[in-house]
């Protein structure tokens, strides 16, 4: 059964368009300062960008990778894990910790991994990017995450008990509408994507994809980018944004560092479904429901190795 999204009470969401550099310790400290600012503005769910603790690029993944398993990892193995846990508990927020490069010693694989912590600092979920960013646009951009990374194997739904559930996925995952639709039909009220689009696909597709996933699924969509740094090897698009269930952009950053904060309310979800009643108009006699059948919500590789 699909269950329409419910948001049990209003939720202030912040997305932090963070400027990061080569110094991991400095990046973690800066993230802590910015999350504290968002929390003092009343946000209870805070999102950081993709690869917020390192520069973004295949050359950097091994150098910055942390070992997260067995969980919980030690402080030396995974300083970012512990920093995120402390940031969440110090500020009493749900924290979608952007993503970090991960090395799994038992499979010898690298992943692009998001850690989600609760307000008590406990790890709630782990999402490894399912769709790796491999593209070739001649003369513009060629990028192959799969040269170094392996994909994750699950759709990640995270229960925030006082509010309801969100789905977390990473950047290129937003291009795959099935993942979003399955999460929405399982009751997520928001799709949250730490991401780092570029100056070729960003202007064309970033906002379009956020609005597309929102309008398809009639739920909120948040996409959180690093700030643009033209001295870095990868030029992030920026334009962190939050879109409502009618696909209206509630707030959008420009290219530089920024915190955007918006209030999510159940009435907007309900009103959208009432006004445009897609949920009762679907024709599963004509095409299949992608949220039925075999769907993986648990990645076998994420189990703590024996
Ligand atoms: O899909 C795109 O155009 C960009 C994706 C990306 O930058 C990523 O997955 O990190």
TrEMBL record:
What SUPFAM superfamilies has UniProt attached to this entry? Carbon-nitrogen hydrolase
GO cellular component terms, A-Z: mitochondrion
Please report the stretch or stretches of sequence annotated as the CN hydrolase domain.
11-266
* UniProt cross-references to PROSITE patterns, sorted A to Z: CN_HYDROLASE (PS50263), UPF0012 (PS01227)
- A GO BP entry: oxaloacetate metabolic process
UniProt keyword Cytoplasm present = no
What InterPro entries would the database entry show? Answer: C-N_Hydrolase, C-N_Hydrolase_sf, Nit1/2_C-N_Hydrolase, UPF0012_CS
- Protein name as catalogued: CN hydrolase domain-containing protein
> Which organism encodes this protein?
Clonostachys byssicola
